[in-house]
Amino acid sequence: MAGIHIRNIEDYNEAYALSINNPEKFWEDIASEFQWKKPWTKTLEWNFIEPKIKWFEGGVLNITENCLDRHLESAADKLALIWEPNEIEGSTLKYTYSGLHKEVCRMANVLKELGVKKGDRICIYMPMVPELTFALLACARIGAIHCVIFAGFSADSIAGRINDCGCSVVITSESMSRGNKKIALKTIIDEAIDQCQTVEKVLVFADTKSTVQLKKNRDYLYIDLASNASDVCPAEPMDAEDPLFILYTSGSTGKPKGVVHTCGGYMVYAGYTFANVFQYKHPEIFWCTADIGWVTGHTYSLYGPLLNGATTLIFEGIPTYPAPDRFWKIIEKHKVNIFYTAPTAIRSLMCEGTEIIEPYDLSSLKVLGSVGEPINEEAWHWYNENIGNSDCPLTDTWWQTETGGIMIASIAGITPSVPAHAGLPLPGIQPVLLDADGKELEGNDVEGYLAIKFPWPGILRTTWGDHERCRLNYFDTFKGYYFSGDGAKRTAEGLYRIIGRVDDVINVSGHRFGTAEIENAINESAHIIESAVVGYPHDIKGQGIYAFVIASSKDSDPELLKKEAEEMVMKYIGKIARLDKIQVVSGLPKTRSGKIMRRILRKIAEGEINNLGDTSTLLDPGVVDLIIKGVV
Ligand code: WT7
Asked: What tens digit of pLDDT does each residue of 254-311 get?
């Protein structure tokens, strides 16, 4: 059986063939390596029309038993978690599997005491501290659905998510330290909850009790409740298709949508992809630099490693604090073996020169990974040579919030790794490239829309509270397929190269924003009547955000308008969506039917003004010249 442990190219070929010829058998073999309280009765039921996707129906499990309890017999004292604090002189914290198990059970009991029950939605707004990992696992332990909100979103964004999922309990921290900044998270949560009706309790982590403002009968300090909570807590039996978590992500239209992942399928897919892509071997130390506020952090900082009994490292801070050598310092200090980060981080550290890497011993590294956006060749080579010493397989992993785990990537050291190419699909994944009519492009050396034609256990099941939105977003463009929203090439050798989004989604430093979402925020300003947002190539971030705004009154000060646009984005989305360029314009290029021609704005933002393409269908072609000349 080559299912879960692919160790050479023959294993890969054999596993891939089985996964196509008999997908159910393929996934049954993998799923049976996990611990089920009750075996499943039906491996797969699906159609991509409604869509309806059910894996391992009838199966009963709890993912935390697979992450924790299962390892206690043989590896209770093995390190599960290493935490590196923001401050360089702060102390590292380490948790063994038995230590982490106790913390998770204790917190699960605290949540129960607050009245949390199976199926309740719990929003988590916290820094990258060990308690964040306890919080996710504690929810999973008792069957509550966690919904982590990245601690860079504004009060308005949080309120939108709380209201959408009907969250009853929020878990937060008094404050967060990132680099030399301290951010008062609890204050932001208070402001968010003012706009919400469903929140009954707030659980707060604080370093010093005295400074936190607690609202009576609503807010509770964790340490007060934890001091007499038991560290034993039975794991709630969960149906394979019960939701495990909701994670909000942006699409091309409207508000962010709550992507739903389920207990059984997500577990199997997170465990399987972690083990194979990174070729994890005990007792290696794995470090994924992603925040747990994103799916990468869910799957590869937390669930994937723990499901495999691995040691995972999490870091509270940022790569440039106190100096831009922090990543390399941490790798040396903890002898990290597998390092998984994003192209944007690599590109920003490239600018610091190689001298700052030289003092460090990075020889512990065995495998490097990249995720979040296409990695350009220059960054790929720099990473490979300067960090991997040209001696570590580098895996460029393509996947999405909706896919739950890695889909197309080199299996480290086994399947081809070519700069700027994600490579071959993992066994179990059936990608296709489609033309605009939804016809599959056969053979190699073709380019088209990247879609997947058969389900895998980690696929999203729905978008919270709105199944039709899920259908429209992912299953409607090309009937019978899951459509990723990305364009890709298949090279002559059959390797996939991701080109980027083909919809109105901008990928900024590996994070997704819908242009409509940003425009809606900007348009909240009373001084701005209309706006159009496009992405443009940015050296560090991959894509930057370029906003064209129109003033509501002719005599507005352009500098004030720019400030206004910035403030609206901070208020309605958060710091992470900071606008890179703002241009005040008098009109936007529109078709006769009133649709903004973003293609033209994108070209202008890219500086490609000699190649604007056909502008004859514009209502007022003259507006383009004014924008180019910067005339308001
Ligand atoms: C979008 C998904 C994958 C988890 C983090 C981002 C882009 C992601 C790659 C890659 C080229 C990539 C795609 C995708 N993307 N990884 N290795 N090569 N593009 O998750 O926020 O759901 O974004 O990120 O455009 O659709 P996400």
From this structure: 789 999 999 999 999 999 999 999 999 999 999 999 999 999 999 999 999 999 999 9
| pTM score, whole prediction | 0.95
* Mean pLDDT of all residues belonging to the chain: 96
The Cα–Cα gap between 204 and 215 comes to 11
Number of H helices, E strands in the chain: 20, 30
DSSP assignment of 530-557: EEEEEEEEETTTEEEEEEEEEESSTT--
Q: What letter does residue 404 receive in the DSSP assignment? A: S
pLDDT band at 2 (very low <50, low <70, confident <90, very high): very low
**d(Cα 322, Cα 418) in Å, to the nearest integer?**
34
**CA gap 568, 584 in Å, rounded:** 15
pLDDT tens track for 109-131: 999 999 999 999 999 999 999 99
Question: Among the atoms of ligand 1, which is closest to the Cα of residue 402?
Answer: 22
Q: Which amino acid is at 298?
A: H
Which tokens belong to 254? 């409207």
Residue to mutate (ligand 1; options 292, 495, 512, 541; most atoms within 8 A of CB):
512
* Minimum CA distance residue for ligand 1 atom 27: 400
Domains and CATH numbers, the chain: 97-236 (3.40.50.980), 505-629 (3.30.300.30)
